[in-house]
Amino acid sequence: MALVRRSNNxxxxxxxxxxxxxxxxSPGMVRILYVLVSLLSVAFPGILIYIILWIMMPLDxx
Length: 62
What we know:
mainly alpha, 3 helices, globular
């Protein structure tokens, strides 16, 4: 499955929902893991990576 942002499974931009779909994981689990990793890395790299993924990942056409 391609890595795309989901328009129906989004909280902010659909990045974590798209990653969850690609990995076939729960979107809630991906969001929790992403927040934990971001906080453990002093938050800035996590926010920057999220913004980059938001720009780079295409929106699902469905």
